[in-house]
Amino acid sequence: MSIAITGGTGFVGQAVLDAAEQGSLAVSALTRREQPDRKGVRWVRGDLSDQPALAELVRGATAVVHIAGVVNAPDAAGFRAGNVEGTQNVVAAAREAGVSRFIHVSSLAAREPGLSMYGHSKRLGEEVVQVSGLDWTIVRPPGVYGPRDTEIFELFRAARLRVMPMPPAGRASFIHVEDLARLLLALVNAGEGSRERIFEPDDGTLGGWSHTGFAKAIGKAMGKAVWAPAMPAALLLGAGRLDRALRGARAKLTPDRARYMAHPDWVSDPARVVPPGVWQPVVETQRGLAQTAQWYRDNGWL
User: What is the CATH number of domain 2-298?
Assistant: First the structure.
C-alpha cells in the first residue's frame, strides 16, 4: 500500500510520516523545498497549485491524505487559494489517477464559516471533497498540540512567566498530534462506517476543556502555577489588529484568528465521534503536555 500525503513537512504531516514509518508504509509526500532522505518516503517537489507535481504525487497511490492548507493569510483570496483551490487540485489529481480513497483534514473552524475567512475557506474545502465522487472521509481536528508545534507553543512560553492571557470564557477540545496521525492512517483502510463521514476527534475529555483549565494544565506541565485571565473579545480583536500591524504576514494573532478564538464553543461534537473499532485516543493530555514541554526544552525552544 502506498499513501500520497500533502503537508508532509508540516507539524501534523511530520507526525503522519513518523507513524507511517513505524507501520512500514510507503509514502509519497509533497514538498516545496529539498528534503533530506527519509526511509519509506518518496519526496515530490511542488505545491498545491502544481498540477504535474500533484499527478506525480498520487501516481501508484492507493489513498490520498490531504493535510496541507493555509492557516494564516492576509485576505480571503489567500485562504481560498490554499484551502479551496488547493483542495480542488488534489481532488482532480486523485480522480485522474484513479485513486478513490481520500482523507481530508479540515478544522473545527469549518463548523462556523461566518466567524472567519479561515473557517469559511475550510468549509468550502469540505464541500469540494463531498461532491468529488471520491471515497472520502473528512476529519475536523480540534486544537492540536505536541512536539514541533509552533501555535500552542506560545502558551508554553507564556507559562514561563506565570501569566497566560486566554480567550473569553469558553470550552475547547484538544488532541495530541500522535493520536491524530494514527487516526489519519487508520482511516485509510477503515470500513463502510467511516466512509462519507465527518469526524471530530479529541483526547477523550467529555465536554472538552475550559480555557482556564487547559492553561493550568500547561502550567502544571511546565512546573508553574499560572494566572490565566480571560481577555474580553474586544481586547482580543484589538490585539489581533496590533499584531497584524506590527508583524504583517508574520503575525500570529490576526483579526481573523481573534474572531474565531473568541467563539465560546470549540468542543468536538460527540455525534461525530470516530467509531471505537477504528480509533481511540491513547495519549492522556496531562501526560502529553508534560512530554511536549520536555521536547521543547530538549530542543532549545524554551
Answer: 3.40.50.720
- Domain spans of the chain, in order of start: 2-298
Predicted pLDDT of residue 74: 85
CA distance 112 to 114: 5
The 10 Å CB-count burial string (b at 16+, else e) for 133-160 is: ebbbbbbbbbbbbbbbbeebbebbebbe
Q: What is the mean pLDDT of each run of 10 residues along the chain (302 residues)?
A: 95 98 95 94 97 98 97 92 98 97 98 96 98 98 97 95 94 98 96 93 97 97 95 85 78 82 95 96 98 98 94
188, three cell numbers: 485509510
pLDDT score for 247: 79
Of 142, 175, 30, 20, residue with least CA distance to 90 = 30
Cα(202)–Cα(212) distance, integer angstroms: 18
Phi then psi for residue 123, to 5 deg, are: -65, -45
Distances from the Cα of 13 to the Cαs of 10, 100, 210, in angstroms? 5, 21, 28
211 backbone dihedrals φ, ψ, rounded to 5°: -60, -40
Position 155, amino acid: L
Q: Are 11 and 148 in contact (CB under 8 A)?
A: yes
Q: Each residue of 79-112: pLDDT tens digit?
A: 999 999 999 999 999 999 999 999 999 999 999 9
Q: What does each C-alpha distance from 22 to 15, 66, 79, 181 come to in angstroms?
A: 11, 20, 33, 12
Residue 28 β-bridge partners: 4, 42
Please provide residue 63's backbone torsions phi and psi, each rounded to the nearest 5 degrees.
Answer: -160, 155
